[in-house]
Write a structure and sequence with these properties.
803 residues, mainly beta, Immunoglobulin-like, Maltoporin, Chain A, 2 domains, 22-stranded antiparallel beta barrel, five-stranded mixed β-sheet, 51% strand, transmembrane, cell outer membrane, Plug_dom_sf, transport, receptor
């Protein structure tokens, strides 16, 4: 580690010496507005001399960096209007432009149209099946990142309860750790649970990238079916915004975002803070919500209020960076501090109710990033990040009383409290376990361009996780045997990118090598005798694949990809998690899959004020040793993970987007996958009774519809009213294998959820008021193993943009 740091710092010093001989780079920033002061969104700003471009954001601001100190012609082209040609001189310093346009004027476009490819278009042209969620329209709504993802084609959020509860992502039928989550390319697990997709407000996010089937090499993780990358905002302007929301179940959510940018030095300081609290005391009812009369044993089904499910999280993230320097395109240092406290209401199912069990977590993390094109050699680029986090995770369970859904302590005929199995705690033996978890990660990537159409990339990823456990409630002899859990992972990937046929055909070939090591000592206790067992396991696999795209026209792109994917068992799957009743499973095997994707991107097609685009993707997943959650024990309410033989899944995602006059937006998507258990015989030659069944506890047909309409200058000039509506559909699915019962099969019912809201914007976007109503019809919503989610809820939010 010291050697790497010394090498890194020395390299920066050499680059700095080289930088003294290089010309200082300039930036071109500015704002495009109409003459009444309202911003022009998505105007193209283009510098023909070096083909650099940018689009104006929701405030009309833009930034083009990395320009040499000279005079430039600049072309500004708002959508539906003719080009504006300007000249700016960057010889002495960076420039800031202010462009005011006539309001709502229609011009005939000239014969020459300047086009610039977005990063998303570039990713699609490499053959990746990628979908992007733009968060700009949601910054004033009372939603979190996980809700936005749940509205995307092929993505289903599996949430165990309300705000702050555990979430899993189902992506084209693959769930849990099979789908990797990143924040700015850093694995989400490094951030700690308090800084999660349940808490990150859209105001902190620039966009969300969803990769289906094949994960690009620059993310370098073991993912079976893709990944989700959250890109946080990196603005080059001064900004300060504050937001506060309040709603049902005594829910409070607040965030502050500040950014300070010095164009002369390129120094940027960014800080974001968030706070969330909720009682989560929503009403629950159904087959799993009942009380038992201890005298008669009679079961009575009730409607009850969750009484022990409060959740509180808070965090602050700071980032100090230098951009567009001769020695670095970006050099940044980031810090994160977060804390979380939550009561635990249920175990793995709703049959068991807790009244005192709770958990606490705090995380401290730092990360260092460095990016540079033309490093030492022309056409050689480098990217690296280092992150280190430490999380203290506590479980408090020292009161053994049994509770029912009415929040009452269950008592016997004499009025004495009934204890849970006389074990000292509600979920087992009394515990005050403190898990000290340390996570180190490094990803380094090098890219070399042989020409404008050929590039070779190499990426190296190393991740080391350790967990030390201390539980003062355990006898000293047992506590001493709880040694450090050690898990490390190394991934090396190579990819070759090329373009052919006048750059209409793109290809990417890649190879990945995976290593994992697990080492620990655990103990078993039989008849009061302790036996220590050492586990030391190493695994190694190779993966490979290819991705292709062909541009039939500028608006029609065909994509395809195939990969032999490997996903090694994760931390909680192998080592367990006491706060969530997860048992360790040391003998898990890696899961592997052959993934095939074939898709098409159509659009944008423009007709006067109308815009239309669509994406469709067909996929196949042939999976072996799929890692899935096991069924919870009826006695302990604990569960582990298991390998599931063979699963074959086929399906399709379809999404369509329509826009009229930048006022009305309509997005609709539909996802269907057919995942079947595909192993016919067990090791003894007997046929599995559920051979050919759909995958248990997995939704297979989902859809979403989102509509938004903006009234401009409704009451006064520069005032705006925005109405939005969202409909989510999940078809019913079985909780267990279909073939295990002839009648009375348990299933999760069909769910149709309606939500709507309104936002009112005052002049200059200084103040925005928002109101959201979720699950308007108060649908009975379930998810993992019939864990009920909140019913009807209302939320109010105020956002103040000071700068």
């Amino acid at each position: 580690m010291r050697f790497l740091l010394v090498l890194f710092i020395t390299g920066l010093g050499l680059l700095d010496l080289q930088a003294q001989e290089l010309t200082n780079l300039r930036s071109l920033t500015g704002q495009v507005v109409f003459k009444d002061g309202s911003p022009v969104v998505s105007a193209l700003i283009y510098v023909p001399a070096n083909a650099k471009s940018a689009y104006s954001d929701e405030q009309g601001y833009f930034n083009i960096s990395g320009l040499a100190a000279q005079e430039y012609e600049v072309i500004i082209q708002p959508f539906g209007q003719k080009e504006i040609h300007l000249t700016t001189d960057l010889s002495e310093h960076s420039d800031n432009l202010y462009i005011a346009l006539q309001q709502e004027t229609n011009f005939a476009l000239e014969d020459v149209v300047i086009k610039s490819k977005s990063k998303i278009r570039e990713s699609k042209e490499k053959g990746y099946n990628i979908e992007v969620v733009n968060t700009q329209a949601y910054t004033v709504q009372n939603v979190v990142a996980s809700e936005l993802l749940d509205r995307s084609a092929g993505v289903k959020i599996r949430q165990s309860a309300g705000l702050g509860s555990h979430i899993d992502f189902n992506l084209n039928g693959l769930t849990g750790n099979s789908v990797r989550i990143f924040i700015d390319g850093i694995p989400l697990r490094n951030y700690g649970k308090a800084f999660s997709l349940n808490n990150i407000p859209p105001s902190m996010i620039e966009r969300i990238e969803i990769y289906k089937g094949v994960l690009p090499g620059h993310l370098t993780e073991d993912a079976l079916g893709g990944g989700i990358n959250i890109i946080l905002k990196k603005e080059k302007k001064n900004k300060l915004s504050v937001a506060y929301g309040y709603g049902s179940f005594n829910t409070h959510q607040a965030d502050v975002n500040a950014n300070l940018f010095d164009s002369k030095t390129g120094l940027n300081a960014q800080i974001g803070a968030f706070y969330a609290y909720t009682d989560n005391n929503y009403e629950v009812y159904g087959d799993n919500v009942y009380v038992i009369n201890p005298q008669t044993g009679k079961v009575k089904y009730v409607k009850a209020e969750r009484f022990h499910d409060s959740y509180e999280s808070k965090g602050i993230q700071a980032n100090l960076s230098l951009r567009d320097k001769s020695f670095a395109d970006e050099l940044s240092l980031g810090l994160l501090f977060s804390d979380m406290d939550n009561d635990i209401q249920t175990g793995a199912t709703m049959d068991v109710v807790y009244g005192n069990r709770r958990s606490e977590r705090d995380t401290r993390m730092f990360n260092l990033k460095y990016e540079k094109d033309n490093l030492i050699l022309p056409n050689l680029s480098a990217k690296t990040f280092v992150s280190y986090s430490q999380t203290n995770r506590k479980v408090i369970d020292t009161i053994p009383y049994m509770y029912n859904w009415l929040g009452e302590i269950v008592r016997d005929q004499d009025g004495n409290p009934i204890n849970w199995r006389n074990s000292g705690g509600e979920a087992g033996p009394a515990t005050l376990a403190n898990n000290n978890e340390k996570n180190f990660a490094n990803r380094t990537g090098l890219g070399y361009s042989f020409s404008d159409t050929q590039k070779l990339n190499a990426n190296f990823f190393y991740n080391q996780f350790t967990r030390d456990i201390d539980d003062p409630k355990l006898p000293e002899a047992e506590n001493e045997l709880l040694d450090t859990r050690f898990l490390s992972k190394t991934i090396l990937s190579f990819s070759y990118e090329a373009k052919w046929l006048q750059e209409k055909l793109s290809s990417t070939l890649f190879f990945k090598n995976y290593h994992q090591k697990v080492k620990l000592t655990d103990y078993t206790k039989r008849q009061d005798k302790l036996t220590a067992t050492a586990y030391d396991k190493k695994i190694s696999f190779n993966g490979y694949g290819a991705a292709f795209s062909y541009a039939l026209t500028d608006e029609i792109l065909i994509t395809s990809s195939v990969e032999k994917a490997i996903r090694m068992p994760g931390i909680f799957e192998l080592l367990g998690n006491t706060s969530e009743n997860i048992l360790p499973t040391y003998n898990l095997r890696p899961e592997n899959s052959t993934n095939v994707n074939l898709g098409a991107s159509l659009g944008n097609f423009s007709f006067n004020k109308h815009q239309l685009k669509a994406d469709i993707n067909f996929f196949l997943r042939d999976i072996s040793d799929m890692i899935v959650r096991g069924i919870a024990s009826n006695i302990t309410d604990q569960y582990g993970f298991e390998n599931l033989g063979k699963v074959r899944s086929t399906g399709v995602d379809l999404e369509m987007n329509y826009n009229y006059d930048k006022r009305f937006t309509l997005t609709a998507n539909l996802s269907n996958f057919n995942a079947r258990y595909n192993l016919k015989f067990d090791e003894y030659g007997s046929e599995y009774i559920y051979y050919g069944d759909r995958l248990r506890n997995a939704p297979f047909l989902t859809g979403n519809l989102y509509a938004n309409y903006e009234f401009k200058n409704l009451f006064k000039q520069n005032h705006g009213l925005n109405l939005h509506y969202n409909f989510g559909y999940t078809h019913r699915f079985f909780r267990n294998w279909e073939s295990l019962a002839s009648k009375g099969k348990a299933y999760i019912p069909t769910q149709a959820v309606h939500s709507a809201g309104v936002n009112y914007r005052f002049p200059g976007n200084k103040v925005v008021l928002g109101f959201d109503a979720k699950n308007i019809t108060n649908e009975h919503l379930f998810d993992n193993w019939a864990l009920q989610k909140p019913g009807r809820a209302f939320y109010f939010k105020i956002t103040y943009n000071a700068i």
